[in-house]
Amino acid sequence: MVRPLAAVPDAVFAQEMVGPGVAVEPDRTGRQDVLAPCDGVVGALHPHAFALELDDGRGVLVHVGIDTVSLRGSGFDLHVERGQRVRAGQRVLTWSPVDVAAAGLATVCPVVALQGDATDVTVLAADGEHLVAGAPLLEWAAG
């Protein structure tokens, strides 16, 4: 389900310190794939988060859950490597929101236009909307 960044229980995301965006609260069912939100090259890559470098020099961050770095990769499976080019919709990692919630951590997943200007980013999905994989989430105006 789509949630505003302001609803993320982490000030860095909620206050848009790294950029504007939106969050996705996954269904808490079994293991789930996290897909690349756009075409790009995998820059930063951790079991719980990744950043894509777009061809125009901008970046997009996907953070899987909050404080999930504390899990030290347990329960996360990476399917890409740093430096690899990915296409929108490609599987990047697999995780279990059920296990993350059982560990007492938030499962909400911020998707952020890194260092973007909030006036250039439009959220295309409404708060509370249930997303289908591949549905447009954000639009970032050409800079």
Automatic annotation (TrEMBL):
Entry's InterPro entries? Dup_hybrid_motif (IPR011055), PTS_EIIA_1_perm (IPR001127), PTS_EIIA_component (IPR050890)
Offer one Pfam family short name for this entry. Answer: PTS_EIIA_1
| Protein keywords | Kinase, Phosphotransferase system, Sugar transport, Transferase, Transport
Domain named PTS EIIA type-1: residues:
10-115
Query: Per its UniProt record, what Gene3D superfamilies does this chain match?
Result: Glucose Permease (Domain IIA) (2.70.70.10)
Q: Which residues form a coiled coil?
A: none
**Keyword Transport (UniProt):** yes
Taxonomically, the superkingdom here is Bacteria
- Keyword match Transferase: yes
Main location (coarse class): cytoplasm
Compartment annotation: Cytoplasm
PANTHER family tied to this protein: PTS SYSTEM GLUCOSE-SPECIFIC EIIA COMPONENT
Protein name stated in the entry: PTS system glucose-specific IIA component/PTS system N-acetylglucosamine-specific IIA component
